[in-house]
Design a protein that fits this description.
The complex is a heterodimer of chains A (about 525) and B (about 300).
Chain A lengths: L1 H21 L1 H4 L26 E5 L14 H7 L7 E3 L5 E3 L2 E8 L2 E6 L13 H12 L14 E8 L2 E6 L6 H7 L6 H7 L1 H4 L9 E7 L3 E6 L12 E6 L3 H9 L5 E3 L6 H5 L4 E16 L10 H10 L2 H7 L5 E3 L21 H10 L8 E7 L6 H13 L4 E7 L1 H9 L6 E6 L5 H8 L12 H10 L5 H18 L2 E14 L2 E2 L14 E2 L2
Parallel strand pairs in A: 1-10, 1-11, 14-15, 14-16
Antiparallel strand pairs in A: 2-3, 4-5, 5-7, 6-7, 8-9, 9-10, 11-17, 12-16, 12-17, 13-17, 18-19
Helix pairs in contact in A: 10-12, 16-17
Chain B lengths: L1 H28 L4 H4 L6 H11 L5 H13 L13 H36 L4 H15 L2 H15 L11 H31 L2 H8 L4 H38 L5 H10 L3 H29 L1 H5 L1
The chains are: A alpha+beta (about 525), B mainly alpha (about 300).
């Protein structure tokens, strides 16, 4: 007995010693660090040499170094420093020239794009119309199995008119072509890609971008160096590394220890830790990515009734969710589009009105206390997603509605939506969402895989709006649709996601609504 | 002996076959991979078309037969995400995983053996209890948590070591320590109990009586006999280390096989998952096979059982 007790004591003692070793007081989190400030242990942390290497912590490795192939944003964001687009976006999301200087419609089926002269790829190849044709043809060629192909299927032909002019001919009016060119298309060096073959080009990319490829170690890092002959002038940051750190806590640790200078998606509950750190600060921007609660009409339940959907809009207090769950890191939405969307129009805000919600339910012949609904949410895909779902459930509980929250693994969540296995409500995010069509066609029509809403009249309105070419007429059609969708209460619109970045204090960095890390725009503080 | 070898080899093949079959069907229950690769605005027709290209539209048994026929020839197909050869992708990660597993194995033996031996020799003393308590603690701490704590302490606060990544010996220290914590407990306790048995043996008493110094009794006479069962445990543990590395590899961004498998599983990159499962099962069975054969070689009784 005595022996046992002694052993227990020793165990407890050891554990206590271990824990003390980990508390902030003894380890010195707060101002009393064991390292005097300004005398960092690692060279990466030394203040702002302009030639210093920038290390960006990133959650996942690129799938390939080929452009126009993998649609995942983790690939796109990294390779965008190697390849340039024809058309880019400014910090507000508006289209600006990049490798293309001008673009216009000759007729609804023909687009003329003028290209920048005197640009060369980093291997010396000239950039010209042939290069543009090569890259669009690459997407369209079934053999290449580009994940972008479906978006480009309406392209009939790319014609080289002269060295700096191409005509893109479409098989039917393609009003969103410019957005596809902006968001999807990056220009690879055609000769290089053909000469070494796709397999090798996937490991050794050549573009016209601000950075040249140096080394890619799978699942570890991507190293790039400045392209001193860049057509926009040499970048000020000469060396750039994307360091792959899948685990968020490890990313945070790496940031706090000065190993990385920048990373995206700081969880709301870790913002203070970054702010309180010696060398870090938080940058936030309203992303184009939106989060919403879909009120699923594909499921044969009470939500088929418009009044019930409207009641839910009145019963959910989005401002409260935003403040209490997300600490204000997001921008409230009232309709299907966010304010950074070029086609945004202001729509009616239901506001929080539980009495009205109860009245509407009664009108629909439903006693709120007998209403049981299911709410599906992904787990960890969007900021605080499961917490948001729980909070929604408790808000609905206030008027008597019982909500069963179901958290799904991401792949399963998508599959349930696609196969129409979702029940009453589900949380989903959507982005980059800069144009109305991309959101409305894909989320409110009968056949779209991730749609949660279908109404015959609304569908007719959408199909009528899609091919409209005249900008004013198109705007009108999509404005009407936004009002209609809000009136139909197809969603409870939540917010435009607030993207939180941890940024080294030495770095001049302005976050972009399109989530890109364009290192050419960044600088070290002198 | 030859009969025994052939029989055991047959068992290895059966195990591999069963592992692959089980995983093939279970992973297909987890859902359709196509949608995770295409953009969310891809229309249903393209999803279908892509499924067709990948052959996922065919009946399961057809897919299975084809998979097994190819797997026998070492062809697991190409990764759906990177389009590279799946088996090659996994093989590329093996060195990093082995490096981590063997280092932590070495580290845990280095810590566990002395603790076990001393605990046995000084049994029921404070030293013994501290040793046991220490090892139990190591086993009880989840590696995820322990890893983060070690990062916080040695990388963020003290700045002695990097928080993660691969490439050099310095990067290896923290993950190896984390991974070793669990095995240390097993090894130390096993060493202690085996050593206790051995120390009770007559030949030890004889040695003691004839005045052989204690350190020599422990390190030469007793240790040799203690090691035999430990070798078995090590071989089995290496399998556990290879599998358990998944979490540690993720926490420390170690570019090993476990991380690749985890990522591929979440991406539903079936070919890579299958190739990885095959390799792990292969390594595990081969290791068991080698140990069994060694045993049979040492102890003829086993061969005839």
């Amino acid at each position: 007995m005595l022996r046992k007790n002694r052993m227990l004591l020793v165990l407890l003692l050891l554990f206590a010693v271990f824990l003390t070793a980990c508390t902030p007081e003894t380890a010195g989190t707060a101002p009393t660090t064991s390292q005097p400030a300004g005398q960092p242990a690692t060279s990466t942390e030394s203040p702002a040499a302009p030639s210093q290497e920038l290390i960006i912590g990133f959650e996942a490795d690129a799938a390939t170094m080929l452009a126009n192939t993998d649609v995942n944003y983790v690939t796109d964001i990294q390779i965008r420093n190697i390849y340039d687009p024809l058309i880019d976006r400014d910090e507000k999301g508006a289209l600006i020239p990049s490798l293309a200087t001008e673009w216009k419609n000759l007729d609804p089926l023909t687009w003329e794009i003028k290209l920048r002269e005197g640009v060369t790829f980093t291997n010396g190849e000239p950039f010209n119309a042939e290069a543009v044709k090569f890259n669009i043809d690459y997407i369209l060629d079934e053999k290449n199995n580009s994940f972008y192909r479906s978006r480009w299927k309406d392209i009939k032909e790319v014609k080289v008119i002269d060295d700096n002019t191409v005509h893109v001919i479409t098989s039917q009016p393609f009003p969103t072509l410019l957005l596809r060119i902006t968001d999807d298309l990056l220009i690879m060096a055609p000769k290089h890609t053909q000469e070494v073959g796709l397999e090798k080009a996937a490991m050794n990319p050549v573009g016209t971008g601000a950075y040249k490829f140096e080394k890619w170690t799978r699942d570890d890092s991507l190293k790039l160096v400045a392209n001193e002959d860049y057509w926009q002038g040499p970048p000020t940051i000469k060396q750039l590394t994307f360091k792959i750190i899948p685990e968020f806590s490890a990313r945070l640790s790496a940031f706090l220890s000065g190993e990385i200078h920048l990373f995206k998606n700081v969880p709301v509950d870790s913002v203070e830790r970054v702010k309180n750190s010696e060398n870090g600060t938080i940058a936030m921007v309203g992303s184009s990515r939106i989060n919403y609660l879909a009120l699923n009409t594909f499921y044969d339940g009470p939500l088929k009734d418009k009044r019930v959907r409207q009641a839910l809009n009145y019963a959910i207090d989005v401002d409260e969710l935003l403040n209490s769950v997300l600490n204000g890191n997001g921008t409230k939405m009232t309709g299907p589009l966010s304010k950074v969307n070029v086609d945004y129009t202001e729509t009616k805000d239901y506001g929080y009105d539980p009495d009205k919600a109860i009245a509407l339910l009664k009108e629909a012949g439903i006693d709120p206390k007998s209403l049981k609904l299911q709410l599906d949410t992904p787990n960890g895909r969007y900021p605080m997603d499961t917490h948001v779902a729980q909070a929604i459930a408790s808000q609905l509980q206030k008027i008597g509605i019982q909500v069963n929250v179901q958290a799904n693994e991401w792949g399963n969540h998508l599959a349930k939506i696609r196969q129409h296995e979702m029940k009453d409500m589900f949380i989903l995010g959507w982005g980059p969402a800069f144009d109305a069509q991309g959101t409305i066609e894909n989320l409110f029509t009968e056949k779209a895989p991730y749609s949660g809403f279908y109404d015959k009249d609304v569908e007719a309105m959408i199909q009528k709006a899609l091919p409209v070419f005249d900008p004013a007429e198109r705007k009108k059609a999509f404005d009407d649709l936004q009002h209609r969708l809000v009136d139909e209460a197809a969603w409870v619109p939540l917010w435009q996601q607030g993207d939180l970045y941890a940024v080294s204090k030495n770095l001049q960095f302005t976050p972009r609504p399109d989530e890109k890390f364009l290192v050419f725009e960044m600088k070290w503080n002198q | 002996m030859l009969d025994y070898l052939i029989k055991r080899m047959g068992q290895v093949i059966v195990v591999l076959f069963l592992a692959l079959t089980t995983v093939f069907f279970i992973i297909r229950l987890s859902g359709d991979p196509t949608a995770l690769f295409l953009p969310p605005d891809a229309p249903r027709e393209q999803l279908e078309e892509f499924r067709k290209t990948l052959g996922f539209d065919r009946p399961l048994y057809v897919q299975y037969t084809e998979f097994i026929m190819n797997a026998v020839q070492g062809d697991f197909g190409n990764s759906l995400r990177t389009r590279e050869d799946a088996l090659q992708m996994v093989l590329d990660r093996i060195p990093a995983t082995f490096q981590l597993a063997f280092t932590s194995l070495g580290l845990s033996l280095l810590i566990a053996l002395p603790i076990g031996i001393l605990s046995a020799y000084k049994r029921n003393t404070l030293l013994d209890q501290t040793g046991v308590a220490f090892t139990v603690l190591g086993q009880a701490l989840p590696s995820f948590w322990l890893g983060l704590i070690l990062i916080y302490l040695f990388a963020v606060q003290l700045k002695w070591l990097p928080t993660g990544g691969g490439g050099s010996l310095i990067h290896l220290i923290l993950p190896a320590m984390t991974l070793a914590a669990y095995s240390v407990a097993r090894f130390a306790r096993f060493t202690r109990s085996t050593m206790l048995d051995v120390l009770r043996k007559d030949y030890i008493r004889t040695a003691k009586a004839s005045g052989v110094p204690t350190y020599k009794i422990l390190s030469v006479y007793a240790l040799k006999n203690t090691l035999i069962p430990i070798i078995t445990l090590v071989a089995l543990d290496l399998g556990v280390l290879l599998g358990g590395a998944v979490i540690v590899e993720a926490v420390f961004s170690w570019p090993g096989m476990g991380r690749l498998l985890m990522q591929s599983l979440l991406n539903r990159d079936f070919p890579v998952v299958m190739a990885g499962v095959f390799l792990i099962a292969f390594i595990y069975s081969v290791m068991n096979f080698v140990v069994d054969v060694l045993y049979a070689y040492v102890n003829p009784q086993i061969r005839f059982k």
